[in-house]
Amino acid sequence: MQKNENSLQPDNLQEIAAAQLSNPQAGEGKEDEFIMLPWQNKAHRLPKPKDLPPVFRELVGNAPEVLRTLVFVACAPALGTYAPRLRFQYVYDQTPSTCLLQVIVCGDQSSGKSFARYVQQIIMQKLIDRDSEQRRTEQKYNEMKRRKGKKDGQLPPEPKTDIVNLPPSVSITMLMKRADAPVVKYGAPRTLFMFADELSTITQSNKRAFSDLKQIMKTAYDLGSTYGQDYLSETSYSTVVDVLLNCLFCGTPAAIDRYMDKNAIEGGNITRTILCQLESHIGDEPPTLKVITPAQQQVIDHTIEQLMAATYQDETTMQPEVMLDTQWLEPAITKWCGERRVEALKSCSKALDVFYKRSSVSAFRIACLCQYLYQLEGKKDEKTIHKWVKQIYLAMADYTLYNMISKWGTVYEQINADHVVTDYRPSHLFENLPSEFTRDLLKVTLEHLEQTTPAKNVISRWVKLGWIEKVDKNQFRKLKQ
């Protein structure tokens, strides 16, 4: 099938756009060969740094222009980890969700991906320090268990900990235990956080654990989707738990391709991911963040304290869930999704039809997090908050969809084409042959009917059944009509 000149298929979007930019006069006097869609020409942009909510404002404001959107997105999963009691209702969902985000920063070696580590350390330091204290408590108990356990069997109860930060090489059993710990301690699940400087740390770990982690990532994207393991041995940890996991990974294009393999693309891991593409050009100096000033650090610390206070009442009790009012944003969401739906119909792009839906979900979650932070800060009126939150949603929806289509659109279309169900109709080979036929005619008929059985096998079978007889070396006559 020939492609229309105005085709919007993802495999040629970037190529045509680049050609237009490099030679804008080429199309003069001719009908446009390419129509830029709104989400491709970056019609929606993030608010200026000064108009962003706290923490986002301080970190994005310290970033060069080329890094600002990436820094904004990198902040989101870390900050979302501090809001495990936040709930909001997406317009197309039947149950509430929470701020669960999976972000991957993609860039070449030495391209400046280290900004993500700095962002993570600045935001997560409070929980990192808290985790360190609880890990020491666990270590002391384990040492006591080794010394006393075998002697008299008398041990105090195992301490109830609530560790949030997970190493990228965490075992599945330990991940289950960490996810179950807040349920045991507080009676409610809590969002965990995983950061990886190098995505290869995950892909090169135990193959079984890596495969299980990718499966967990799919259920960890949605509140209420449980994952579990059940062992016969009493020494193994068996549980079924709602795993809530935010993650921020960095990796080279090759490492990301290993992580997002064919199964991950087909199974939905890519649509749950916000991909941040860090462009690098030969001779360019890697972009870097400015160091946070004491005044900025004070704002960040104050916001983190507010988020912690909204999470915990005391050492044994969590705060009630907070339901965010987002009904005012629903018209913008349905309008954006409706526009993408029409574009998918016009372009017949299966990738666009699938990718825009979760792009909208991830953008909505970031927008809700920003609304929550605006309200905690208490410095902007409702009208202003709605203005900036709507702008953030539209910018993030466009950004997420654009990067998803650019990276995985072509591959997804190919995989989808391979799995299109086609009707199989048995061919009437015998009936399509004349009463007398040659071996060559049989071969041609087999090829025409797209049959792969060798001609000699067909002849041998029909002779045994008494359907045909051999007239000459390569000549046969039907005995059965």
TrEMBL record:
The Polar residues compositionally biased stretches are 1-12
Q: What is the lineage of its organism?
A: Bacteria, Pseudomonadati, Bacteroidota, Bacteroidia, Bacteroidales
Q: Which organism is it from?
A: Segatella copri
Region span, Disordered = 1-29, 133-162
Q: Where is the composition biased (Basic and acidic residues)?
A: 133-144
Name listed for the protein in its UniProt record:
DUF3987 domain-containing protein
